[in-house]
Amino acid sequence: TFPYDSHYEIVDEARAHGFDDAIIFNSANNVTETGLSNLAFLLDGEWFTPPITAGLLPGTMRSLAIEKCGVQVRNIHITEVPAASEIYLLSSLKIAQPVQQVGEMRFPCGPASVAFGELIREKIQYFSVV
After folding, report:
1. What is the pTM of this model?
2. Burial of 65 (0-12, 13-18, 19+ CB in 10 A)
3. Can you state the angle between helices 60-69 and 111-123, rounded to 10 degrees?
4. DSSP class of residue 85?
5. How far apart are the first and last CA of the chain?
6. Digits of tens for pLDDT over the chain (130 positions)?
């Protein structure tokens, strides 16, 4: 829900523990987003992002990833996070950034991750405002 002021508190708490951001879950323990970005998970060789109905902000990069990069939409339960091969942050400021670590779990930036980042950057159009 708006406003997203509570997200700043979440990010501050994550940073106090040595992390850049934190994954937010809803009351059903499904992934929503992070304090600053949307998420995409590589599960069984396919990229997924949570649905807006999970309670997340419908970000521009998330929408482009769905529309132009074949990212599928479905709920992602908290128990699926460790099963992800790779995870990406999606936001207008970061475009697409691989996640290196969630808690104690490390995620490699492997070929699938590199290809996904390149695909998103290939498909978006940059605009300049004068």
Report:
1. 0.87
2. buried
3. 100
4. S
5. 32
6. 555 666 767 777 878 888 888 898 999 999 999 888 899 999 999 999 999 999 888 888 899 999 999 999 999 999 999 999 999 999 887 788 888 888 888 888 888 888 998 998 888 876 555 5
Record the tokens describing residue 44, joined without a space: 């069984």
Helix/strand/coil for 88: strand
- DSSP percent split of the chain into helix, strand, coil, nearest 5: 35, 25, 40
A 10 A CB-CB count for 36 gives 18
Spatial contact of 72 and 94, defined as CB atoms under 8 Å apart? no
Pairing of strands 31-34, 46-49: unpaired
* Cα 93 to Cα 24, 29, 36, 42, distances in angstroms: 19, 27, 10, 21
Residue with tokens 């700043």: 8
